[in-house]
């Protein structure tokens, strides 16, 4: 085991390093996790290799943005709760401010022909991002016929049978729990004594206090504005999302598309793809697309505008990231026990397999919206309708841009920002087509 050689940092040193991570954290969760490893483990030597991997494994068991949770865990490990708050907030804040500014510009001027053409290219690039995510998830998730069957069932449940997203996740977790009964206990290397001794009383106190902070804005909105106001609905929706989205940001998109687009009508599928493109090209967690959705919900609601959009964006962001403080501060002292749990390992593996099917569903829905100019509503025997692409109306330019983005990302590992910029410029060709 490699121990951290340097003493724990001061709060000022931790804040400086965390702000640096927040400003440079491009490339999605994988890039951000690698960046934190370089800063906290290799450069500063504040955290040992085994501690970092242990923290990462624990965060991957949690719902929500694992990279932000890892930053919070690292801060908690180094400087207790205050350090966790500093590291977790500074991981998100730079990207959140940038996404807010870009979303405002998009909402105000996104219909201008040149801007629309740039986002046309970004939409096609997003298809490449999702295909890259499918490849990455498939490599670690599909370890046998059972996992493949589970991924296929998740895809069909969402796409064909239009099952609620929470039900799909719940069924996958139940299957994983059942499968775990016949599996050996996961092997775990020896680890340092946790920074804070596990205590049920301390965990309940942390969960209650941080849970109260999480729900305070939502309760205030419900009391002052009522349950049917868009601000309350945004808070309720993203609070549910925070506890149901295992497997990273692309699983969030499946639930967003099902609820925010289809059920609530806060924005259209093409607009949500634009939001994902903005989140891809800015630092911070990819799940900042939630902030974009919240902003558009406030902006486009009747009687809305900038102030309501800003409040809804803030509500969406708070309800997305505040739960991470609950999971870390209440659960981190118990995390070693979770790592040794057969049930936790089995549930994680099953949900990871289902995530492949969930991302495939996202790829299908977004692909139809971007790569074809029309859709056909097909009735299903059980009474609902399935939207399928009109194969007679392909968008050839979008297909070329999407294919180029996928090849650049998967085959040549080109920087994400460069891919987005290149695809946005290629989208200008649509002005002459």
Automatic annotation (TrEMBL):
Alphabetized UniProt keyword annotations? Cell membrane, Membrane, Transmembrane, Transmembrane helix
The entry's cellular-component GO terms read: plasma membrane
From the Swiss-Prot or TrEMBL record, state where the protein is found: Cell membrane
Q: InterPro entries per the record?
A: Chr_Tranpt_l_chain (IPR014047), Chromate_transpt (IPR003370)
Q: Which family does it belong to?
A: Belongs to the chromate ion transporter (CHR) (TC 2.A.51) family.
User: Which NCBIfam families does the UniProt entry name for this protein?
Assistant: 2A51 (TIGR00937)
Tell me the PANTHER family matching this sequence.
CHROMATE ION TRANSPORTER (EUROFUNG) (PTHR33567:SF3)
- Protein's recorded name: Putative chromate ion transporter
């Amino acid at each position: 085991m490699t121990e951290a050689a340097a003493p724990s940092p001061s709060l000022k040193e931790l804040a400086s390093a965390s702000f640096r991570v927040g400003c440079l954290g491009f490339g999605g969760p994988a890039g951000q996790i690698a960046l934190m490893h370089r800063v906290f483990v290799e450069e500063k030597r504040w955290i040992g290799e085994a501690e970092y991997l242990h923290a990462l494994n624990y965060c991957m068991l949690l719902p929500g943005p694992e990279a932000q949770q890892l930053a919070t865990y690292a801060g908690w490990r180094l400087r207790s709760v205050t350090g966790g708050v500093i590291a977790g907030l500074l991981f998100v804040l730079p990207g959140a401010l940038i996404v807010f500014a870009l979303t405002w510009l998009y909402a105000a001027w996104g219909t201008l022909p040149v801007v629309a053409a740039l986002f046309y290219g970004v939409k096609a690039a997003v298809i490449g991002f999702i295909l890259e995510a499918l490849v990455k998830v498939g490599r670690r998730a599909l370890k046998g016929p059972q996992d493949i069957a589970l991924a296929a069932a998740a895809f069909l449940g969402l796409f064909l049978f239009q099952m609620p997203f929470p039900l799909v996740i719940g069924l996958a977790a139940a299957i994983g729990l059942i499968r775990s009964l016949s599996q050996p206990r996961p092997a775990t290397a020896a680890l340092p004594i946790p920074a804070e001794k596990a205590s049920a009383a301390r965990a309940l106190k942390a969960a209650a206090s941080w849970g109260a902070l999480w729900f305070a804005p939502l309760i205030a909105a419900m009391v002052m504005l009522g349950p049917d106001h868009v601000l309350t609905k945004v808070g309720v929706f993203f609070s549910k999302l925070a506890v149901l989205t295992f497997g990273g940001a692309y699983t969030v998109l499946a639930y967003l598309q099902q609820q925010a687009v289809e059920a609530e009508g806060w924005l259209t599928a093409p607009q949500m793809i634009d939001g994902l493109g903005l989140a891809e090209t800015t630092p911070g967690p990819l799940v900042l697309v939630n902030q974009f959705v919240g902003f558009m919900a406030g902006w486009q609601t009747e009687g809305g505008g900038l102030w309501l959009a800003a409040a809804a964006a803030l509500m969406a962001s708070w309800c997305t990231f505040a739960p991470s403080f609950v999971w870390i501060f209440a659960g981190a002292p118990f995390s070693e026990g979770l790592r040794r749990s057969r049930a936790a390992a089995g549930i994680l593996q099953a949900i990871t397999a289902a995530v492949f099917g969930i991302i495939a569903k996202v790829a299908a829905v977004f692909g139809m919206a971007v790569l074809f100019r029309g859709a056909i509503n097909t009735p299903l025997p059980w009474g609902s309708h399935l939207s399928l692409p009109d194969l007679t109306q392909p968008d050839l330019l979008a297909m070329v841009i999407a294919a180029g983005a996928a090849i650049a990302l998967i085959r040549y590992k080109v920087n994400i920002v460069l891919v987005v910029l290149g695809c946005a410029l290629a989208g200008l060709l649509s002005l002459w087509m």
